[in-house]
Each structure stands twice: as structure tokens, then as C-alpha cells.
Amino acid sequence: MIGHRDAESAFVEAWAAGRLHHAWLLAGPQGMGKAAFAARAARFLVTHDGGGGGQPLPFDDPGDAAAGRLVDAGNHPEILTLARQPKDKSKELARNITIDQVRQMIRRLHLSLSLGDWRVIIVDAVDDLETDGANALLKTLEEPPAKTLFLLVSHSPGRLLPTIRSRCRTLRFQPVERDVMASWLHEMRPMLDAAEVRAIAGASGGVPGKALALIDSDVAAMERKLLAIATSGDPGNRLREALAREVGGTSNRERLELVIDIVPGLLTRLARERPVAEIAPVLAQWDRVQRTVRDAIRGSYDGAMVGFEIGNCLAELAPREGAAR
């Protein structure tokens, strides 16, 4: 995890002061490390009996060794996780966290603690709850058992029941700053060159999970291809046609997603590099790209067509002959 020191401090300070709210909503884009934070918070709580007497401890303080070993083995009896389960014997996950899973969790809450001072319930993600399950969880949040902490991971907190949000203390996980992301990527993969690190940091949008997924995608090479269209205008369509071939078809869907990830950061960079009077056209193409992607996602889209249209947007940004430099 990187870039979430504020969230860590908020949690341990509340614990140390004896004011640990019974439910925490961990809100932010998918891939920010919210589930990892929940797992670490649960580990912290079950390995530290009582409070800190007003003195916060480091979030990674090991605490009780025996309890820590149970957590590491996935066998601590007071950490319960609700998540989508595989359907039948397949690896495919069910669409939702079911009401039956919530009911089983509620039954566990009526049992006495068997180890330590706290029980922790992780819901990953609370967005995945069936409607009946969300209502059942709400009732539990309204009358929480003593010494029970709920950690609710949410990628889309605005879609949750307002009554669930109102029962929680919210920790917002913001995108990681680009220089912090770049430093982290360099530590993760020291062999990456500076151009690749910069390209990945930009394409990730500050989301660590996305950055990890992009590491082996040769982001810098794709960025150079897109930049060539934006700087030359591609008068013969050669570059745009090559881009369409590269991202077209179901087998190249990952390449298309890579282009979609890169373009916003590339447009931001172009806007920063241009005089104020030339920013408006860049913003117009930004809107056009966003509409293209939205329309593509809504329908059964042709990747080659989407790639070519994104190329058209970039080509519009090429300097015109006689334009002021």
C-alpha cells in the first residue's frame, strides 16, 4: 500500500483515544488498496487488546504474535469476510453477496468472542450486496453488537443506501500523487526505464492496482504512437489505421483498454504544454474521447472503430500550418 497515511493515522488515533467508530466506509476507486487496508486494520485490531491509552501505534505494529500467526494463516476466528463466492464448482464469482451470507454473519455476532477483545467484519465490496442483504446489514449497523467493527469496502459509495452511509465513518482513498507513484514503481521494478515509469504513472490515474496491471504492457511505446498522431496529424491515416488494427478484435481488447487508459493523461500533458489560447481545443477532444468511450461501452462495440475514432481526436490537435508557435 502507498499513499494512504492519512487513513492509517485516522484509524489508529481513534483506536488509541478509545473512540473507534463501529463502522468504517472505505471509499474510493477500485484498485486503490481499500481491501488491503481493511485486512491490515483487522489485523491491527485483533492483535492489540484494549486501547492505546491515548498513544497511537504504527499501523503495522505486530502486536500479539500468536494472534498475528492466526491472521497470517487465515484462521483467526474473530475476522469474518463477506465477499462474492464462486458459483457451484466453477471459478466464476456470483453476481452478488447473498442475503444468506449476511444472515450467517449475523448469527456469528450472537456468539461470545472466543479470542481477544474485538470481532471484525469485512464486506468486500458492500456495493455487491443484494438488496435484502443491504437491508439486513443496515439493521445490524443500527444496533451494533459491542466490540464489533465493520469495515465496508465501496468502489461506488454514492450508490449505497444513504442510511448505510450515515451509520459509517468514511475514509476516502484518493488517487496517489504522480511523483509518489513513480517512486513506488521504481522500487517495485528497478529495471523499468524513466520513460516507462512516467507513462505508467500517468496512465494509472493514481490507482496503484491499475499501475501494477500496466507494468508489463509497454505503456511508453503505446504513448509514443498516440503522441505521433497528435503531433503529425497523420495526414495519410497510416498511423490511425495501424492503431485500429492493433486494438481491433476481441483478442486485442486489452490493448484497446490500454489506449483508453493512456489518452486522458496524454491530453492533460498536451494541455499543460500549450499556450492558454490553445487549451480549449484539447478540452474539446477530451470530451469527444469520453463520449466515444461511453458510447462504446454501452453498445457491442468494434474495437478497431473505437481506436480509429480516438486517433481522429488526437489528429485534430496537430499544429496547423501557419498557426502561431
Description:
This protein is an alpha/beta fold. The chain has three domains: 5-172, P-loop containing nucleotide triphosphate hydrolases (Rossmann fold); 177-215; 217-325. The chain has 14 helices and five strands. The chain has helices at residues 5-16, 34-46, 65-72, 99-109, 131-142, 162-166, 178-188, 194-203, 208-214, 219-232, 238-247, 253-273, 279-298, 303-315, and strands at 23-27, 79-82, 119-124, 148-154, 169-172. The chain has a five-stranded parallel beta sheet with strand order 2-3-4-1-5, with helices on both faces. α4 packs parallel to α5 and α10 crosses α14. The longest helix is centred in the last third of the chain and has 21 residues, at 253-273. The mean pLDDT is 89.
- Low-confidence runs of at least 5 consecutive residues: none
Name the helicity range: 40-55%
- How many distinct folded domains? 3
Q: What structural class results from the helix and strand content?
A: alpha/beta
Secondary structure tally: strands: 5
Shape: elongated
